[in-house]
């Protein structure tokens, strides 16, 4: 099938994708999108994290004068500075490398209601949508066109056979690290959990099928979430699991999947979305960083996940990272159904401290936090005397396939989820999460530097990873947030 769908079919596919991009009557027009552009010099100073003197500014303006586009001007200026004034300044060079992709031409994202790096923003533009207001009547009723031989297909993720198809697509084609050593291996049970919360819409879980065997070549998902952003309630779609089969990459299929999910979400009168990605596209609301706590240092070194610190023999490294065999918090036990109400109250009260957070219903807390084997673990702290519950910890299970090792095939990874600490220090609570994860034979415990995590990570012997996770909003403008202002975990 992949061979047959080779060059000829690819051209056809690209053409059809381009058509799908144009056939959107409800698409933004240039004028709707055009927010006043800021001076390219301001963009350059922001990128560098440095103020420029008047002579340098003049020189840069001359350098970039012949560039026709705004993005081109900024790139030319950055390029000039990289080769001259800052050629030896590693910090500035790193800053430039970090933002340069935002000044690439983004054929798709530049046409979407997302913030752009070149916009001149004032405070009055925050906390509102970017697009002109629309109603469901403005949304095209029919799906975007796919090339001949490809069709849209809703996925019934509760059905084992269809869930298996999504599983197969993702385990073979979903996110890998930069060196292609590991690939996420979301289990079927995990996908069913993540994609069927109370009130989920079955048509927001869909993909593209094609070929003789009607195989799944792409997938995207959305679930409805109730968010609070800088005090304002916004109902959003949480978009996740965007994946295109390796054989159909760079043919704009991803953009059609994104447009189609947007259409399906809009039909529910929902106009905003939240999503995360490792890649930098226009324009993150926050840039967060993964940290890793080794639980099985020997295996992590063997598979190339971590490296031994200089002059440290393995035995010393293992000893350094050894955790107590037993948890220390009195009254720690698995969450049960009867705890849902109190956990719901604790979670929402805690999350309200953050500028961006979810607001959970009781049914959602039951769905997302009640323990599920191989998917999510939640432990509450029940006071042995009063039986009151004021704290809980949770983590989810997301292994990765190890792609290039003879012996080890799976990396067992726990991810920090939601934790609330009122009667015990947060550090002790998370240390207990590490101990439980170790008891359950996980190799590593991952956490983002969001919520309060950053303050504890070093103390708990997490090491900073090289991966960033960018948080994005679709059609909602906010100032940039620090990771510790984010109270949402996307699985
Ligand atoms: C991400 C993925 C679906 C993109 O597909 P692709 O075939 O490489 O890209 P396409 O040609 O279809 O589309 C390119 C457009 O998608 C955008 N894009 C790429 N990855 C994206 C992402 N993760 N989220 C949103 N947009 C993305 C690109 O920026 C580009 O738009 P632009 O021209 O405006 O910059 C594909 O690479 C994939 O399945 N990767 C592995 C899984 C993965 O990383 N999923 C995303 C998890 S966040």
SSE layout and pairings?
Blueprint: H1 7-22, H2 30-33, H3 40-48, H4 54-64, H5 70-83, H6 90-99, E1 150-154, H7 160-173, E2 182-184, H8 188-195, E3 205-210, E4 215-229, E5 232-244, H9 253-266, E6 273-277, E7 286-294, H10 297-302, H11 314-320, E8 332-334, H12 340-351, E9 356-358, H13 362-369, E10 376-382, E11 389-397, E12 400-402, E13 410-411, E14 413-416, H14 426-439, E15 444-448, H15 453-457, E16 463-474, E17 486-487
Parallel strand pairs: 5-6, 9-17, 14-15
Antiparallel strand pairs: 1-3, 2-12, 3-4, 4-5, 4-9, 6-16, 7-15, 7-16, 8-10, 10-11, 11-14, 12-13
Helix pairs in contact: 1-9, 3-5, 4-5, 12-13
Bound molecules: coenzyme A (COA).
Explain what you see.
The protein has 491 residues and is of the alpha+beta class. It folds into 3 domains: 25-125, no CATH class; 144-271, Aminopeptidase (3-Layer(aba) Sandwich), CATH 3.40.630; 287-487, Aminopeptidase (3-Layer(aba) Sandwich). 31% of the residues lie in helices and 22% in strands. The protein has 15 helices and 17 strands. The chain has helices at 7-22, 30-33, 40-48, 54-64, 70-83, 90-99, 160-173, 188-195, 253-266, 297-302, 314-320, 340-351, 362-369, 426-439, 453-457, and strands at 150-154, 182-184, 205-210, 215-229, 232-244, 273-277, 286-294, 332-334, 356-358, 376-382, 389-397, 400-402, 410-411, 413-416, 444-448, 463-474, 486-487. Strands 1, 3, 4, 5, 6, 7, 8, 9, 10, 11, 14, 15, 16 and 17 form a 14-stranded mixed sheet that branches. A 3-stranded antiparallel sheet has the order 2-12-13, with helices on one face. The two termini are 32 Å apart. Residues 1-9 and 25-34 have low confidence and may be disordered. It binds coenzyme A. Residues 106-109, 173-175, 242-244, 249-255, 277, 279, 281 line the site of coenzyme A.
């Amino acid at each position: 099938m992949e061979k047959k769908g080779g060059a000829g079919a690819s051209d056809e596919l690209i053409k059809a994708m381009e058509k799908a991009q144009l056939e959107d009557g409800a698409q933004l027009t240039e004028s709707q999108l055009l927010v006043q552009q800021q001076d390219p010099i301001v963009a350059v100073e922001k990128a560098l994290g440095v103020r420029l003197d008047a002579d340098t500014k003049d020189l840069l303006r001359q350098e970039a004068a012949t560039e026709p586009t705004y993005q081109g001007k900024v790139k030319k200026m950055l390029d000039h500075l990289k080769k001259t004034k800052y050629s030896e300044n590693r910090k500035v060079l790193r800053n430039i490398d970090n933002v340069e992709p935002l000044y690439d031409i983004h054929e798709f994202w530049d046409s979407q209601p997302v913030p752009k790096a070149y916009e001149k923003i004032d405070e009055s533009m925050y906390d509102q949508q970017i697009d002109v207001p629309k109603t469901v009547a403005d949304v095209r009723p029919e799906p975007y066109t796919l090339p001949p031989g490809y069709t849209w297909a809703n996925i019934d993720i509760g059905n084992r056979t269809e869930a298996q198809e999504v599983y197969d697509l993702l385990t073979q084609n979903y996110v890998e690290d930069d060196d292609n050593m590991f690939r996420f291996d979301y289990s079927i049970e995990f996908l069913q959990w993540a994609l069927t919360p109370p009130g989920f819409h079955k048509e927001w879980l869909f993909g593209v099928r094609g070929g003789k065997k009607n195989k799944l070549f792409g997938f995207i998902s959305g679930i409805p979430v109730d968010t609070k952003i800088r005090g304002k309630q916004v109902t959003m779609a949480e978009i996740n699991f965007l994946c295109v089969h390796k054989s159909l990459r760079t043919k704009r299929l991803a953009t059609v999947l994104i447009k189609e999910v947007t259409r399906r979400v809009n039909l529910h009168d929902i106009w905003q979305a939240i999503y995360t990605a490792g890649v930098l596209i226009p324009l993150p609301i926050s840039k967060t960083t993964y940290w890793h706590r080794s639980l099985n240092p020997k295996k992590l070194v063997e598979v190339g996940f971590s490296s031994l610190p200089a002059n440290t023999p393995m035995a010393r490294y293992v000893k350094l990272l050894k955790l107590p065999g037993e948890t220390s918090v009195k009254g720690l036990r698995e969450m049960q159904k009867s705890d849902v109400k109190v956990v719901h109250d604790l979670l929402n009260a805690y999350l309200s401290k953050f500028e961006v957070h979810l607001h959970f219903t009781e049914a959602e807390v039951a769905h997302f936090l009640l323990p599920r084997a191989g998917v999510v673990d939640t432990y509450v702290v029940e006071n042995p005397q009063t039986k009151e519950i004021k704290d809980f910890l949770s983590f989810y299970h997301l292994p990765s396939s190890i792609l290039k090792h003879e012996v080890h095939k799976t990396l067992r990874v726990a991810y920090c989820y939601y934790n609330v600490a009122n009667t015990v220090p947060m550090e002790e609570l998370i240390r207990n999460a590490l101990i439980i994860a170790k008891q359950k034979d996980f190799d590593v415990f991952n956490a983002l530097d969001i919520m309060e995590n950053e303050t504890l990570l070093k103390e708990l012997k997490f090491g900073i990873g090289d991966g960033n996770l960018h948080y994005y909003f679709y059609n909602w403008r906010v100032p940039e947030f620090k990771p510790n202002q984010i109270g949402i975990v996307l699985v």
